[in-house]
Amino acid sequence: MVHHWPAIQNVSGQPSIALPAHVTDAGLPLGIQAVGRPGDEQDAFVACRADGEGFRVADAAAPLKVPA
What we know:
This protein is α+β, with helices and mostly antiparallel strands and 68 residues long.
């Protein structure tokens, strides 16, 4: 099943940003989505920066597994 949650923000004019947050032991990437008020991108950026620092986003990337 595919969800298109960001499309709701696109239509309403709300800024939204998705961040990787964690990778499970099984390699499943998990993320967080921050949504701001319409026309207020700055709050969404600030929230993502704070969450990104807490979750060490740079270390949360899922490993790329290419079939042999």
